[in-house]
């Protein structure tokens, strides 16, 4: 860099520490580049309006802005202002001399699986073998015999590149060649006689000259121009002249300065070398030093200060913290600190960082994450590194990974577990400790019985209309129905039901304990199993003899499944509705659960609480994997959604820190969604959101373009790329099989699994497109290629016969019209053939399209066009547009007329309008003869006959 490039600035403290640039003496702008002001920014950089040099885009050597490249590095080419990797097609190789692809052809030379017209740099050509052979290492240009040009910092010596020239030669910095020394020199630094570094035997070195020892001048003298010996300056021990600035060696106690003077003390940024008696430069950035390895003071530029650390000047303290241009040590155990020795940023293992201090263990209510103690969420006494609470402080309860002071709706405080447990599904509110201690019910028609919600009260209770609770009947009632306790439907022993629903005591009181009063007021014996009863049968018991238990008026030896023994009352009482078997009536007294319920916190629940899943094998609620917020089963691959800071890969059921290759992060839903099949990495699901491509595809404006033809997909065979045909059902695909389609032919549609399915209402055969009883698509509502089939209304049983008759009538009419059209078609077809035998090929061309289809050019007998133009072929049998189906009887031939006055309007373009309002034109192209099969194309453009 030229010295003229430096400029003196108001805000600079040296030529290499500029912060902004001024114009030069000619008024031309200069630009800031790495602390210096330059006339022109170097390669790979561009100048900004702020007069600074900023880097070009990746792989760009010359650019005008950060987003507009003008020339790219080798193997890259410019496209839309950016540098794209050069990817050559089959049969082509990269030409590094021109950054382009070239075909391998006769006369090219092979090198590293490439084909070159001219051998690249650092190689030479062997014409007999038509190959390029690498030069020796460090040689830029060569032939098979010797090197001609070496890399910088090396010198050419006898056809080889060397770092140091051999004795008798010196390295010429201009030519990078080893040149011969003067004849008097054994070694030298230049071509002149006074450039000697050493001499032959018998001669001695004197100020760069080799002289005979007896001719050498004595100490403290020098050889003058006239050949005599003259005295040195008194301060010199040896010199090249009589001035004090011409010393070459100093007396003891003095040191040779950079100005060739002998001084007692070396100047700033230099130190005195006691062995050589020379002032040598301090290391980079030193203001003073004691030797080449130990600085004592560093430069203090306020824009780019240097700090003294371990005898060197550094831009940033590797350990410790900067204070007064010196790196001070941190406290023991602290690897890096800021502002003072105790404000730690990084700790030495195994210590942990906590509030900028290094500790052995994290304190309570903290967790270890990334080598530092992170505080748990509020009220957590213990938490997971991902931030989920494990245990809560006093007066707080665990709920969905957080600690809350009050449980939310439909949860109650489980004091034993110190967490919020879910209420019974029937409860709108509950107070615990059991899930069946409801305060209100979800079903407004349900009744509240012992804290549980029931559809109806037992026969001994009635539903209070105001509170909704099941209240006990009056003492005299055996059963009642409400609306109050005295509305009896049957009476206890010793009472008789009156007409108003009241139970009055009977006057007869002579019956024994094992008798009952019949309707006539007489005493009758109970059944033998009954202790007390209300009637004669075994199902009329009110209490049982010893060793038996009462259930629904019957005395049993043992309670059945679903009931428990109430020994105090001598009854079989029902278990809670969630229990299969139990020891008590409450939900927390289950012994086993009913099918479809799971054991959790001593209860049987239909749905496990947050962060748990129901294990059908064990019948227990078990904790999900720590990465899952909710899950279906054990392991990290059964997640339904994820813990904080993780994303959900739905396909694998896993929660990950980042999405894998082939997926992108849907931040709105916190999920990993698959990229388009051709993308290797992407920013969205669309095909134009690719960031990198699968093998065999090239990236262009966010789209991965296949290197194969349409209807093929790329396959890597060894080191070469081959193209294989797609499955017959696909128009385009990314791989093998019918589930790898990326686009479909007309009359078919792409389903989410990558298959091309026929439209459900399509009756024609399309070759090899998959169709089954359920595998079809309703294309009518999604796109316009499959709306050709007539959508007949469904026929129900009631009007089936009437509509069946109508269908027969319509079918007959259609067939009649088809026959008439076929007759007209045959007559016109024979006329057109006779009229076209000596007519030159004519056709139609599209107006304003820049090229027509006349003369048969561009015909595709079996092809289907795009949405704007779909072609018809008699080979296919039918054609589809966006609004209707054309049968063969509807086809019209077009031919040129010999006479201009023929005004047969039937031969004009047929125009039709679809149901969606789209206008279409049919036209014919190609010569109309006896042997050709006419193709029609339907297009919504305008055409002119030529």
Structure characterization notes:
With 946 residues, this protein is mainly β. Among the domains are: 3-84, Hormone Receptor, Insulin-like Growth Factor Receptor 1, Chain A domain 2; 423-470, no CATH class; 508-577, Hormone Receptor, Insulin-like Growth Factor Receptor 1, Chain A domain 2 (Ribbon), CATH 2.10.220.10; 837-945, no CATH class. The protein contains 1 helix and 98 strands. The strands form 47 sheets. The protein has a 4-stranded mixed β-sheet with strand order 78-77-80-79, with no helix packed on it. A hairpin with a 2-residue loop joins strand 85 (712-717) and strand 86. It is elongated and about 170 Å long. Mean pLDDT is 76; it is low at 1-15, 763-774, 781-804 and 832-946. Keywords: Glycoprotein, Membrane, Transmembrane, Transmembrane helix. Pfam families: GF_recep_IV (PF14843). It comes from Knipowitschia caucasica (Caucasian dwarf goby).
């Amino acid at each position: 860099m030229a010295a003229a490039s430096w400029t003196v600035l108001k805000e600079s403290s040296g030529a290499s520490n500029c912060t902004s640039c001024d114009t030069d003496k000619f008024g031309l702008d200069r630009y800031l580049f790495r602390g210096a002001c330059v006339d022109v920014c170097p390669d790979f950089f561009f100048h900004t309006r702020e007069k600074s040099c900023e880097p070009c885009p990746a792989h760009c050597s010359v650019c005008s802005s950060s987003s507009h490249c003008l020339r790219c590095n080798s193997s890259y080419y410019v496209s839309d202002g950016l540098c794209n990797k050069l990817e050559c097609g089959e049969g082509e190789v990269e030409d590094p001399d021109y950054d382009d692809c070239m075909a391998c052809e006769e006369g090219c030379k092979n090198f590293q699986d490439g084909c070159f017209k001219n051998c690249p740099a650092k190689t030479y050509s062997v014409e007999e073998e038509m190959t390029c052979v690498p030069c020796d290492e460090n040689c830029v240009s060569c032939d098979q015999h010797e090197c001609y040009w070496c890399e910088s910092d090396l010198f050419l010596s006898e056809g080889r590149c060397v770092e140091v020239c051999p004795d008798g030669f010196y390295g010429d910095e201009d030519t990078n060649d080893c040149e011969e020394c003067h004849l008097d020199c054994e070694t030298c630094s230049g071509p002149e006689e006074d450039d000697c570094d050493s001499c032959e035997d018998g001669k001695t070195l004197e100020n760069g000259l080799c002289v005979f020892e007896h001719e050498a001048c004595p100490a403290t003298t020098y050889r003058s121009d006239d050949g005599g010996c003259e005295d040195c300056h008194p301060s010199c021990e040896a010199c090249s002249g009589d001035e004090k600035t011409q010393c070459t060696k100093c007396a003891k106690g003095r040191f040779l300065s950079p100005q060739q003077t002998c001084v007692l003390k070396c100047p700033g940024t230099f130190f005195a070398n006691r062995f050589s008696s020379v002032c040598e430069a301090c290391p980079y950035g030193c203001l003073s030093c004691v030797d080449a390895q130990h600085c004592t003071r560093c430069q203090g530029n306020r824009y780019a200060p240097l700090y003294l650390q371990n005898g060197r000047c550094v831009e940033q303290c590797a350990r410790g913290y900067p204070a007064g241009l010196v790196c001070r040590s941190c406290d023991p155990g602290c690897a890096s600190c800021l502002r003072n020795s105790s404000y730690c940023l990084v700790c030495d293992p195994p210590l942990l960082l906590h509030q900028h201090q290094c500790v052995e263990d994290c304190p309570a209510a903290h967790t270890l994450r990334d080598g530092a103690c992170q505080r748990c969420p509020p009220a957590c006494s213990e938490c997971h590194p991902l931030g989920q609470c494990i245990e809560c402080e006093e007066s707080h309860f665990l709920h969905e990974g957080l600690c809350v002071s009050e449980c939310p709706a439909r949860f109650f405080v489980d004091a034993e577990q110190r967490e919020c447990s879910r209420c019974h599904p029937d409860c709108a509110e509950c107070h615990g400790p059991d899930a069946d201690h409801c305060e209100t019910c979800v079903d407004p028609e349900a009744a509240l019985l012992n804290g549980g919600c029931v559809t109806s009260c037992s026969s001994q209770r009635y539903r209070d209309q105001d509170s909704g609770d099941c209240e006990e009947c009056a003492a005299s009632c055996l059963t009642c129905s409400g609306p109050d306790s005295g509305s009896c439907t049957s009476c206890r022993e010793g009472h008789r039901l009156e007409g108003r629903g009241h139970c009055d005591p009977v006057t007869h009181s002579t019956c024994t304990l094992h008798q009952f009063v019949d309707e006539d007021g007489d005493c009758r014996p109970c059944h033998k199993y009954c202790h007390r009863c209300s009637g004669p049968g075994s199902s009329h018991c009110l209490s049982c003899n010893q060793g038996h238990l009462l259930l629904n008026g019957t005395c049993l030896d043992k309670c059945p499944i679903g009931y428990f023994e109430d020994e105090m009352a001598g009854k079989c009482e029902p278990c809670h509705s969630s229990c299969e078997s139990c020891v008590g009536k409450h939900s927390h007294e289950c012994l086993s659960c009913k099918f479809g319920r799971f054991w959790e916190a001593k209860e049987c629940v239909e749905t496990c609480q947050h962060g748990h899943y129901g294990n059908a094998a064990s019948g227990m609620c078990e904790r999900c994997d720590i990465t899952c917020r909710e899950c279906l089963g054990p392991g990290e691959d059964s997640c339904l959604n994820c813990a904080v800071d993780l994303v959900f890969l739905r396909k694998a059921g896993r929660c990950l820190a980042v999405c894998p290759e082939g997926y992108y992060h849907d931040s709105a839903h916190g999920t990993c969604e698959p990229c388009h099949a051709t993308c290797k990495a992407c920013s969205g699901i669309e095909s134009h959101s690719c960031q990198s491509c699968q093998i065999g595809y090239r990236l262009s404006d966010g789209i991965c373009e296949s290197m194969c033809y349409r209807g093929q997909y790329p396959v890597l065979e060894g080191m070469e790329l081959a193209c294989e045909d797609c499955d017959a059902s696909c128009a385009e695909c990314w791989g093998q099989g019918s589930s790898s389609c990326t686009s479909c032919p007309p009359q078919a549609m792409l389903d989410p699994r990558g298959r091309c399915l026929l439209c459900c209402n399509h009756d024609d055969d399309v070759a090899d497109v998959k169709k089954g009883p359920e595998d079809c698509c309703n294309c009518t509502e999604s796109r316009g290629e499959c709306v050709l089939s007539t959508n007949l209304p469904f026929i129900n049983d009631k009007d089936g016969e009437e509509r069946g008759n109508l269908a027969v009538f319509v079918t007959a009419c259609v067939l009649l019209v088809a026959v008439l059209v076929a007759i007209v078609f045959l007559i016109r077809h024979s006329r057109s053939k006779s009229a076209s035998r000596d007519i030159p090929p004519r056709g139609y061309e599209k107006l304003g399209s820049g090229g027509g289809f006349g003369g048969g050019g561009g015909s595709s007998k079996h092809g289907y066009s795009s949405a704007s133009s779909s072609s018809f072929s008699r080979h296919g049998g039918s054609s589809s547009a966006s609004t209707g189906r054309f049968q063969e009887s509807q086809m019209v031939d077009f031919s040129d007329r010999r006479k201009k006055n023929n005004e047969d309007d039937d031969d004009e373009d047929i125009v039709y309008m679809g149901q969606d309002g789209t206008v279409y034109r049919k036209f014919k192209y190609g010569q109309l003869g006896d042997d050709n099969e006419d193709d029609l194309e339907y297009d919504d453009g305008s055409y002119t006959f030529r």
